[in-house]
Specification:
GO terms for molecular function: hydrolase activity, acting on ester bonds. By secondary structure, this protein is α+β, with helices and mostly antiparallel strands. It has helices at about 1-20, 65-70, 105-110, 190-195, 205-210, 230-235, 260-275, 300-320, 330-335, 350-369, and strands at about 30-35, 40, 80-85, 90-95, 115, 125, 130, 135-140, 150-155, 160-170, 175-180, 185-190, 215-220, 245, 285, 325-330. The chain is built from ten helices and 16 strands.
């Protein structure tokens, strides 16, 4: 009997301890509305609070095709930075689309990703969160120490649209949002640049690239719809950017009688649109990253990707020859994907994302010095 009473008391005390731990020993939680606080980074200046969590401003809805608009609601590349004295915090939010895709996990499509950097360091460290994917998704971050002077960077989902988001800390702790004030790196691209098929948001190559630079990286990539279209070009030319990256070749075919001419015309128009406002700002145009991958034997796809890249490279070299000294070409060989780099015919896995990010980082460090 004594043993049973002792076991019952110990179990009760253990349960009470767990409950108190979850609720912070009775402390109230202070919730920060991310949108209301104007905390979002990685978006063009034309996007306002009234546009919600989208990457495109509402006034573009009638100007772009419906798929572009819908994909522009996804949080790819959008993030927030903050400082906090809290030893733990919770992020809760809702999304408007399906949680995952056949070739991409829930953590990448709909999840969050947290990194932290000390004030005297250039290296970002990762903090995993305990996630719960229900109608309201939650990520709990704890057991990472207490670093009130660190910058914390939280990436939003790559392929889902956030409806609302709040960060909760104990009422006696502080949380202050942080904003960068440097010329951004603008990326206009396809599903690969949007982040397919990274296992978590921080491993999408544009986010990976952003941790190598002080500038924010703005992701304007639209899965299957990165086509060098005028409304998006007109949007990005309004930005006083450090560099413009045009990574649209995977969505631009050269098949058909006028295929080569059309692709060349799209590249010429994209460069001239940006040059009309930014005559000397660096522009980088990239080959299809899967143009020439050793040990991948899908001959028809390989030939298609290689043809696109060769036409694009020829167009870029012609513009360079005509005097554009701030136009750069990033080749598939510099990217260096291999047969372990992709999930399917074109989309990189985490290993492939790292290769793409490193290739861009090497080039941009030379350009931006």
């Amino acid at each position: 009997m004594f043993i049973l009473n002792k076991y019952w008391k110990e179990s009760l005390l253990s349960s009470l301890f767990c409950i108190l731990s979850v609720i912070g020993y009775g402390q109230e939680t202070k919730w920060y509305d991310v949108l209301e606080a104007k905390a979002l980074e990685g978006r063009v200046k034309a996007v306002e609070t009234a546009d919600g969590y989208a990457r495109l401003p509402l006034n573009l809805k009638g100007e772009v095709r419906e798929p572009v608009w819908n994909l522009g609601q996804d949080g790819a590349g959008v993030y927030l930075e903050f400082k906090t004295s809290a030893k733990s915090f919770v992020v809760r939010y809702q999304v408007s689309k399906g949680l995952n895709m056949p070739h991409m996990p829930t953590t990448g499509v709909s999840g969050l990703d947290l990194y932290s950097k000390a004030s005297d360091s250039k290296s970002w460290e990762w903090i995993y969160g305990k996630y719960n994917f229900k109608d309201t998704i939650s990520y709990t971050y704890e057991d990472y120490g207490q670093y009130p002077n660190n910058i914390y960077r939280l990436y939003l989902p790559l392929y889902n649209a956030v409806k609302w988001m709040e960060i909760g800390v104990s009422a006696n702790e502080k949380l202050e949002f942080h904003h960068a004030d440097l010329k951004p790196i603008i990326v206009y691209g396809t599903s690969i640049a949007q982040g397919a098929c990274a296992s978590r948001p921080g491993l999408g190559w544009t986010n990976w690239l952003g941790r190598d630079f002080d500038q924010e990286v703005i992701n304007l990539a639209f899965s299957g719809n990165g086509r060098l279209e005028q409304p998006i070009l007109d949007l990005i030319k309004q930005e006083d950017a450090a560099v413009f990256i045009l990574d649209c070749i995977p969505n631009l075919s050269v098949s058909g009688e006028d295929g080569e001419r059309k692709l060349t015309g799209l590249i010429d128009n994209a460069v001239s649109t940006i040059r009309a406002v930014h005559p000397k700002t660096p522009i980088v145009i990239a080959a299809h990253s899967s143009s020439e991958v050793p040990a991948v034997l899908n001959l028809k796809s390989n030939a298609d990707y290689q043809n696109r890249s060769r036409v694009a490279e020829k167009a870029v070299k012609a513009l360079q020859k005509n005097g554009d000294k701030n136009l750069y070409w990033l080749s598939e060989k510099e990217i260096g994907l291999d047969n372990n780099s992709t999930v399917d015919y074109a989309h990189p896995n985490d290993y492939g994302m790292e290769k793409i990010a490193k290739a861009y980082s090497k080039l941009l460090k030379r350009i931006l010095k």
